[in-house]
Amino acid sequence: MDTLVNLEAFLATADAGGFSAAARKLNIATSVVAKRVTQLEERIGTALFHRSTRQLRLTEAGQQYVHRARGVVADVGDLLSRMGEKQRDLSDHLRVKAPTSLTVARLADAFTIFQKQNGSVKLEIVMIDRPVDPVTEGFDLAIGAFPHSFGGVVDEPLCRLPRLVCASPAYLKKHGIPKHPRDLVDHRCLSFLPTGPEWPFEGPRGRINIQVRPILSSNEGRVLTQSAIAGNGIALLSHYLVADALRDGALQPVLTDFPIPELWVKAAVPERRIDAAAVQALLKTLKKSLSLPL
After folding, report:
1. Where do the DSSP E strands lie in the chain?
2. Is 223 found in the same domain as 186?
């Protein structure tokens, strides 16, 4: 157990930014925290902190290992909890990658509900709009709709993510309504950076991929939505982003005979964390929150 308490000292020091603050958090002497961190550094053969009289900063190695160490400590805590049948109150630290627009629209409420129900679970929500390997980047869950898969990871489907191409009535009146996906090359297009300017469609004879020439690209879907409503161009967007605008007539769908292939929102979970009680509880909350169509 020496290694475990040394890891706990390392994490407490990283979170608190110093040995004294970590000692107060752990309710032990400052010298004990410093000794445990030094023992860990000696064990792995590298420094985890840059030490100075003013501050303590993680070294490159420390930054690399801190999230993995957090996962190891959480795994042990979860195992001991299961062995002792202490499942009534979950206790864990979950680091979650989530997409920005979907988090603001739906996931933030799910995270809030989960933490109200599980007050001893600490959440670290990091908004990233690109594919993430949760194993190498130190996440307990990586939520997204990209069709990427990674080794040592379990993909848990959460919900469907319907998408469509749309534009404002004013734009279509001025520039015309595209009849075929290839017409988009002559239109002003608004592109979501993570998926790129190649837009996929399902045609009567199979998949059609069109390379558009965007006048605006962004990794934030709400920026593209507002631009489309303002009449700046045609956008390919997730339905949940434009549902209100479609209902109010501020936007209208185009190319409905050529639907966009559907994506799935999923949670990628490292295999070693999939059975953790807190992870399973969060997955359950997310699935319930996303049970209503996006």
Report:
1. 49-51, 56-58, 92-98, 121-127, 141-144, 153-161, 163-167, 189-192, 198-203, 206-211, 214-218, 234-238, 252-254, 263-270
2. yes
Considering the domain architecture, whether residues 168 and 252 belong to the same structural domain is answered as yes
Residue 79 counted as domain residue? no
**171-204: pLDDT as tens digits:** 999 999 999 999 999 999 999 998 899 999 999 9
CATH number of the domain that residue 124 is part of: 3.40.190.10
DSSP character string of 30-86: HHHHHHHHHHHHHHHTS--EEE-SS-EEE-HHHHHHHHHHHHHHHHHHHHHHHHTT-
Least confident of 42-56, 148-162, 192-206, 255-269: 42-56
- Dmax over CA atoms of the chain, in Å, equals 73
Q: How many domains does the chain have?
A: 3
In tens, the pLDDT along 75-104 reads: 777 666 666 554 555 678 899 999 999 999
Asked if 60 and 25 sit in the same domain, the reply is yes
Question: For 223-247, what is each residue's pLDDT tens digit?
Answer: 999 999 999 999 999 999 999 999 9
Residue type, 16: A
Q: Are residues 127 and 217 in the same domain?
A: no
- The domain in which residue 145 lies consists of 92-161+264-289
